[in-house]
Specification:
Number of helices: 3
Structural class: mainly alpha
Strand content: under 5%
Oligomer: single chain
Helix content: over 70%
Radius of gyration: 28 Å
Largest sheet: none
Shape: elongated
Order of helices and strands: HHH
Number of strands: 0
C-alpha cells in the first residue's frame, strides 16, 4: 500500500519542477543580459558600412579590369 501511494503521487510535482526550471532559466538570462555589454550594433555602424561598400565596389572594379 505504501509503495502504490509513492508511485501515484509523483506527477503533481512535474509542473512545479518545470516552472522552477523556467524561473531559474529566466533569472540566469536576465542577469546575463544586464551584466554583459551590448555589442550587437557598433557605435560607428554607418562608417563601417560605407567602408565595406567601398571595398566591395573596389573589388568588383578590379575583377572587371582583370577580365
Amino acid at each position: 500500500m505504501n509503495e502504490a501511494k509513492k508511485t501515484r503521487n509523483w506527477w503533481p510535482m512535474l509542473p512545479v519542477f518545470v516552472l522552477g526550471a523556467t524561473v531559474l532559466a529566466n533569472i540566469v538570462l536576465i542577469r546575463l543580459a544586464t551584466n554583459t555589454e551590448d555589442t550587437l550594433l557598433a557605435d560607428d555602424y554607418y562608417q563601417q558600412g560605407l567602408a565595406e561598400e567601398a571595398a566591395i565596389t573596389e573589388k568588383a572594379a578590379d575583377e572587371g579590369d582583370a577580365k
